What we know:
- This protein has helices spanning 46-68, 87-104, 113-119, 167-177, 185-192, 215-231, 235-266, 281-294, 311-322, and strands spanning 6-11, 16-23, 26-34, 77-83, 108-112, 135-140, 145-150, 156-161, 270-274, 297-299.
- It has a five-stranded mixed β-sheet, sandwiched between helices. A five-stranded mixed β-sheet has the order 8-7-6-9-10, sandwiched between helices.
- The protein starts with 5 loop residues before the first strand and ends in a 17-residue tail after the last helix.
- The model has no long low-confidence stretch (mean pLDDT 96).
- By secondary structure, it is of the alpha/beta class.
- The relative contact order is 0.18.
- It has nine helices and ten strands.
- The radius of gyration is 21 Å and the shape is globular.
- Zinc ion binds next to α3.
Amino acid sequence: MEQNIYILAIESSCDDTGAAVMCNKKVLSNIVAQQEIHEAYGGVVPELASRAHQQNIVPVVDIAMKKAGIDKNQLHAIAFTQGPGLMGSLLVGSSFAKSLSLALNIPLIAVHHMHAHIFAHFIEEEGFEKPQFPFLALTISGGHTQIVQVNSYTDLEILGETTDDAVGEAFDKTAKILGFPYPGGPLIDRYAQKGNPKTFAFTKPKVADLDFSFSGLKTQILYFIQRESKKNPDFIKENLEDICASVQHIIVEIIMDKLKKAVEQTGIHTIAIGGGVSANSGIRSALKDAETKYGWKTFVPKFEYTTDNAAMIGMVGYIKYQAKIFSDKEVVSQARMEF
Ligand code: KG4
Ligand code: ZN
């Protein structure tokens, strides 16, 4: 019989402090403390994020351990996010993980945050199927926009990524222009569902190969809103649903164009999406359509494993534990990290 491996995982790459306890590929607990302090600033403030991580990390780990119902002496390893992310935030998680692994005398496992978003699909969860290798992973969030070809746990290749803003930023920055609080992506989605996506036309950026660019679109939307609001001060209020629907429509089209290109290029029809933006209703319905239209097989993990969370770090921790890939205590956090 397979031995039960218990891993405590820590995630602190951006503004969420996460701790999870895994038993093999199953999640025993997955706790996230979201930092509301950034709302007032319309975006994540790095200094405030690392300070909040310092306050949150001990209680979050404590709750995760209690909820999992195991004692710290039962742990086999500590996994943590090495990067990429905000340096001050990463340091809080790595220092904590290092100290605990040293105190308990158990292995330390450094995890690449983007690998974790991808392998979140392998968490065992009732009602959720796992993609088969090879597959294409689309990770879309406030910090990432990436298409990766995943051939195995260790053979991953980035096919395309953003050259400037992430797709979540395109949503959030548009939301800010419209006067929504941060992060406004979910609100755009909500209004978009009642609007007509064909009302306002925006142009797609021309970006080579499978890379993305969203900063030009954001400027285009800003100028459009400023121009129209000059003519009619109530323009936003009177057209909110149609503006949101049109913006969402163009963003979904940009993503789907690149995905189609990636499928053509690789011949791989299995698509696994992750990251906070994968909650978007427009993306989800476009992917469903692609299943019937092009015969794709698409996978979306349980929502709590798509946004930043520690369970996905624990999942990679388990894969690395099985392969005995451990880190020594000198391992350093990396704001930018090779894939
Ligand atoms: O993965 P996540 O929680 O954090 C990181 O950025 O790593 O993703 C958050 C992003 C934000 O930009 C948020 O506005 C966006 O995901 N988001 C959405 C939706 N839900 C979350 N964007 C569009 N539609 C949604 N339904
Ligand atoms: Zn992330």
